[in-house]
Amino acid sequence: RQPRFALVTAPKDFILRCPQEVDAPDSPPEFICAPFTNSRDEVRGVGVMLNTLNVSLTMGGVPDGTNMVYSVILGVENPETPSNGMTWDVRILNGGFNIVDGAIGVRAPTSGSEWIQDLYVDSPRLDWLTPPQALETHVAE
To answer: Is 106 helix (H, G, I), strand (E, B) or coil?
Structure first.
């Protein structure tokens, strides 16, 4: 099967960005990511693909039984209120741009209990009631 690329397609309301676009300095140098439309029909039978990134799988994966597991971090801008479908597609391609694996129509959170509006996350911080003393230890929870 020899996977080489992953095509990640987000719902229309989401904005996908490659790590180099969101200043991710920890991305390995061999990590290649670029927008992909399939406008030249490189992947036969799927048509034009909007809101899709082509992510290389050239970095070392982790063996898990007979499978290889890859992890990538992409920049994702979520809409305040999603309105154009909520499914994601991931297609795994070999060097000849043939689909060798994939997950199509993976549902993203859609209900109020899953989709949290107006969520603000700030950098974590630790505060003490009294300044810590030399050699003193604390457990953060």
So the answer is: strand
**What mean pLDDT do residues 13-38 have?**
75
Q: What is the pTM of this model?
A: 0.70
Distance CA 53, CA 6 (A): 8
Q: What's residue 131's pLDDT?
A: 79
Q: How far is CA 65 from CA 42, 57, 61, 69, in A?
A: 31, 18, 12, 10
Give the list of residues 6+ apart from residue 74 with CB closer than 8 angstroms, or none: 8, 16, 17, 18, 19, 33, 53, 55
Rounded Cα–Cα distance for residues 83 and 104 (Å):
19
Q: What is the mean pLDDT of residues 116-135?
A: 73
Average the pLDDT over 43-72 and give the result. 82
Q: How many residues does the chain have?
A: 141
Average confidence (pLDDT) over 10-30: 72
Torsion of CA 104, 107, 108, 114, to 10 degrees: -160
Tokens of 126: 């630790």
